[in-house]
Amino acid sequence: MSVSGQRICRLAEEAADSPDPERALETLTLLREELGEFERQQVARALTSGRSFGLIATAMGVTRQAVHRRFKDLARHRRLSGMAPTPEVRLAVDYAGAEAKAQGAQALVPAHLVLGILRTGDRRGAAALTAAGADLERCRQAMPAGRDDGHGLRAVLAEAVQDARRRGREQIEVEHVLRAALGDGHASVEALLSGLGVAREQVLEALDAAPAGDADCLET
């Protein structure tokens, strides 16, 4: 279950079991916020798998215009070396920036991308990290301070483009970003995994064993 999914279940249970109505209402506010995040993650996942805004709107019971207005940022067609990142990659990058800001970091480094991937809850990258023992809260606690020896977001994304091309993909997927972040030379990721007691090979093995993602079965 994704991080948001776990949090939703916990908050719903807390609200239902709370004997204090004020406390229950406070918890419900947090629950609504988390549901909004979960909804955004599912829209990103649907767009990544090839669903149109129209299909998503039908599933949500709203108009296509309403869905496009709320989530059009996930579908921007900015390309990197001729390849477009999937909406889930865009979401992971957004989350990475939020994690860096919350920690007061001076720069977004590849280790923040690991946190961002975990927050997306995608079925390959996040699942592989979790299976290897790198859950979000532990990663936040083990997050190393300082910069990344000049290897930042652009370096990882450039490597992700190359990985996607080697695998014959037409888009940059979360899996490619994670493999790039796990590559040599990204000191922040090495420090993060070391602090967790997780070997890079463990994550890669879990990633190789993960089932095919939604992006492998696009709807036409």
Can you tell me about this structure?
With 220 residues, the chain is mostly helical. The chain folds into 2 domains: 3-75, no CATH class; 84-216, Double Clp-N motif (Orthogonal Bundle). The protein is 65% helix and 2% strand. The protein has 12 helices and 2 strands; from the N terminus they run H-H-H-H-E-H-H-H-H-H-E-H-H-H. The chain has helices at 3-17, 21-48, 53-60, 64-71, 87-102, 110-120, 125-131, 136-142, 153-166, 174-181, 187-196, 200-209; strands at 84-85, 171-172. The chain has a two-stranded parallel ribbon with strand order 1-2. The radius of gyration is 18 Å and the shape is globular. The protein starts with a helix and ends in an 11-residue tail after the last helix. Residues 215-220 have low confidence and may be disordered.
